[in-house]
Specification:
Pfam families: DUF6051. By secondary structure, the chain is an alpha/beta fold. It is built from 13 helices and 9 strands. The chain has a 9-stranded mixed beta sheet with strand order 1-2-3-5-4-6-7-8-9, with helices on both faces. α3 crosses α13. The longest helix has 22 residues.
């Protein structure tokens, strides 16, 4: 498959609002509505306490797009009305605004596993935000204002303005949004396992393909295993899985430098000193699981013991030139069992964390296609 050509074709066809039929041997793309109900009051209480910005003066609990939204599912060709016993949930990276690069990922996984792939957006990403947040004409004045407010500001762009300004003003927002995302995933997983989703049989398994920050979210969910719903979940991580303290989000399309520094400083210092924000019944809470993933020397034995016990259902691929989620950070998160779980690759073409498979590099088309096939054949075999 030519990844460059297929990506462009799928971008033109993709829709949040209507079913898309890709052809006889290709999956269909079906939209579904998600309305947040799980722990809604708990999340709203936390969101009300977060400092707002001039860019977005309303509190996060008042942003309706984040609570009610469409997600899409790539469904195997010829599925008809037959319900499936297995699902793959695909989780994306930080500050993503569209699914463009993920469409070929989902299609390949569907075609090579025969399982539906759910493209599920994390909180305040993709279509879970007001559209004006990413309108250049609306945002550019706020970019200029932020540059005046923060001296020597690096990597400030209209692409990262919304996330950067909101994180800078209140770094706790990163955790609260992650917690909200975990609750949403829990709600959807529960719906699937109860047989309440039109695509899946009762007790269907839910496995995870996780990229970048989506991998951290997946690790936290598996560590906490709320309601024992993820006991047998398989996880494939691509360009993700690092201990938090080793991540670097300072990039023009992720976070500006000031927001990146604020985020790291808050979670490696202040957050760890604060009392727990969420109740625990004695099991590992989502918050405790997140705290395990901040520093390599924090709750090391408990974290590494989990990954050791789960190593037969977790696999990961990192990229040697990835400066956002470095291989060493993943090794520090997983411990010694990383030798079994993790494989580091170094492609022969120019790539980055954000663009692992460049679709505009015609001189490298064959190499990109080969690398893509290797990664996603591995992912399909795992999932």
């Amino acid at each position: 498959m030519d990844i460059s050509l297929r990506t462009k074709q799928l971008i033109k066809l993709f829709s949040y609002d209507k079913k898309v039929e890709l052809g006889d041997s290709y999956p269909n793309i079906i939209p579904f509505r998600f309305v947040q109900t799980d722990r809604r009051d708990e999340v709203a209480h936390l969101q009300k306490g977060l400092t707002t910005t001039g860019f977005c003066p309303v509190t996060d609990d008042c942003i309706d797009e984040n609570k009610r939204f469409n997600y899409t599912v790539f469904v195997p060709a010829g599925n008809g009305k037959e319900k499936k016993n297995e699902a793959i949930m695909l989780l994306h990276g930080l500050n993503e605004r569209n699914w463009n690069k993920y469409l070929t990922w989902a299609e390949h996984l569907v075609k090579n596993t025969g399982k539906p792939v759910i493209l599920f957006p994390i909180a305040f990403h993709m279509n879970r935000t007001p559209s004006v947040w990413y309108n250049p004409r609306t945002v550019l004045p706020w970019v200029n204002a932020r540059k005046q407010e923060v001296g020597d500001l690096d990597n400030s762009t209209f692409v990262n303005l919304a996330l950067s300004s909101r994180i800078s003003k209140q770094p706790l927002r990163f955790y609260v949004s992650g917690l909200e995302s975990a609750y949403d995933i829990l709600q959807l997983t529960r719906q699937i396992k109860r047989g309440e989703h039109p695509l899946f049989n009762e007790n269907a398994s839910v496995n995870l393909f996780a990229y970048s920050i989506g991998a951290l979210l997946s690790q936290v969910i598996l560590l906490a295993n709320p309601e024992k719903l993820f006991t047998d979940t398989r996880l494939f991580m691509f360009c993700g899985g690092s201990i938090f303290s080793e991540m670097n989000g300072n990039a023009r399309d992720i976070l500006d430098k000031e927001a990146s520094v604020r985020l790291m400083d808050y979670y490696t210092h202040d957050f760890l000193k604060e009392p727990s924000l969420t109740p625990s019944d004695g099991s590992i809470s989502l918050e405790q699981a997140f705290r395990m993933m901040i520093y390599p020397d924090r709750m090391t034995e408990q974290r590494e013991s989990f990954f050791q016990s789960a190593c037969n259902r977790i696999q990961a691929i990192s990229l040697k030139k990835d400066v956002v989620i470095p291989t060493q950070g993943i090794i520090k998160a997983l411990g010694k069992v990383s030798q079994k779980i993790l494989e580091e690759l170094d492609f022969s073409f120019p790539y980055s964390h954000q663009v692992p498979f460049p679709v505009d590099e015609r001189d490298y088309n064959e190499s990109v296609n080969k690398a893509f096939g290797y990664v996603f054949d591995r992912a399909a075999a795992c999932l």
